[in-house]
Write a structure and sequence with these properties.
Alpha-Beta Plaits; 4-stranded antiparallel beta sheet; alpha+beta; single chain
Length: 90
């Protein structure tokens, strides 16, 4: 099952993102369930959120992954949504 995780950072949280980026990327690598991922950018080109496509067994697995992401544990996000996603192109 593919799940689209969209997370918006708290205002002014770029330092939190930068401080936890290496741990976040290591988590992605270690878990092996991320099909695609990348930061969302604001009008100035600065990172301000995340878009992650998870390939997991079910929504509970996606919720668990999201809760254990170092970014989430560091309190980076203002909001997180998880939606089932269907790949049509790519």
């Amino acid at each position: 099952m593919l799940i689209a995780l969209r997370a918006e950072d708290k205002p002014g949280a770029l330092p939190i993102r930068q401080e936890n980026r290496a741990a976040h990327l290591a988590y992605i690598e270690a878990t092996g369930c991320v099909a695609q991922a990348g930061p969302l950018l604001d009008n100035a080109g600065q990172m301000c959120g995340s878009l992650v496509i998870l390939d997991v067994a079910d929504m509970q697995a996606a919720q668990d992954w999201a809760a254990n992401d170092p970014y989430a544990k560091a309190g980076l996000f203002q909001s997180v949504t998880l939606d089932e996603w269907k790949r049509v192109i790519g």
